[in-house]
Progastricsin
Amino acid sequence: MKFLFVVLACVAFSEALFRVPLQRVKSMRQQLAEKGVHLALSDPALKYEPYKSLASAVVDPMANYADISYYGSITIGTPPQTFQVLFDTGSANLWVDSVYCNTQACNAHTKFNSTKSSTYSSTTKTFYISYGTGSLYGIFGYDSVNVSGIVIKKQIFGLSTNEPGQTFLQAQFDGILGLSYPSIAAGQATPVMDNMMQQGLLQDNLFAFYLSRNGQQGSEVAFGGVDSTKYNSQIYWSPVTSQTYWQIEIKGFSINNQETGWCSQGCQAIVDTGTSFLTCPQQYMGYLMQAIGAQADQFGGYYVNCNANNLPTLSFNINGVNFPLPPSAYILVQNQGGYPYCQVAIQSTYLTSQNSQPLWILGDVFLKEYYSVYDRANNQVGFAQAV
Ligand SMILES: *[C@@H]1O[C@H](CO)[C@@H](O)[C@H](O)[C@H]1NC(C)=O
Ligand SMILES: *[C@@H]1O[C@H](CO)[C@@H](O)[C@H](O)[C@H]1NC(C)=O
């Protein structure tokens, strides 16, 4: 009953819920594809593909890969300077472009100017962050950060000084707001969520994502509570297994209700809003594509015949509950020169956990189907059927 009371109390305090509307944008991968440049899909931990992969890229003006990233607005400093940031549960630092950076990528974005902020304080501490194959250099500073009305004082954040290889040139966002655990933060910088908790700014120490399907608006990240208008089932919880990424255990993986046995000893997965696709460990990719009846394309991805009517439903068992992923979730229908092209939104990865176990990545393909809640107070992740 105590638990029930707590749950009801948090729903009743709806004014304590801070919502940040998120915009959908075509990812860099898709924007480049529209220019005829295809990035290899072979290194998928990556959200931020660097230009150096372009050297080996294949040019095909017809093909059209769609994937999406989600960003929203925050302000930094006094008076406020506004930035579009990617809300990323797969990293832990906040950084934005700054006037200290004059690369093409920085000049294409809004840059933070510390001299214009009366609440800014500088440091001499530099950092380097690598996102898969993308990377940036910067310097840390402190300032007030306003996330949809949650005002965090003395938040440490990165000001970019160099983005080699123009990694972020194509990005629609000016920075990244990482929501992972502090253990993976570059420079041991205290993440935004940790300061929100320490400064007592949240009703409940959790945040939750709704990522809309089929090009609809309404995506959001909510802080301090869950937004019950965005899901329509119970929330099913699973404990965090490593406080690094939002890492959880997968207890089983089925294809058309047939248990594959791949996760009979337990698989590890990270829940990552900054990864577009569903990502499976390299060792299972071949079997999985065979089960789907997918063909490899020339760009390192996979596609299916759009007339196929017997595509399987994939299903993850997470803490005893099955989370099905129907073909409509993992097949992206593209227009390729006037014809439909059915891309499989699944990639493989060699990414491993800190103790070297292969990792699945439950990216946006999964998170569009399931509203996701990231509970720092109890170190658990919740999923519910998204509206
Ligand atoms: C930063 O702001 C200061 C004070 O307004 C201004 O003098 C300076 O030109 C700005 N720097 C850049 C690179 O915009
Ligand atoms: C924080 O941002 C909200 C809008 O998201 C605004 O209404 C509020 O005035 C801001 N607070 C401060 C202290 O800047």
Notes: The helical segments are 2-12, 28-34, 104-107, 192-198, 282-292, 327-330, 364-367. DSSP finds seven helices and 30 strands in the chain.
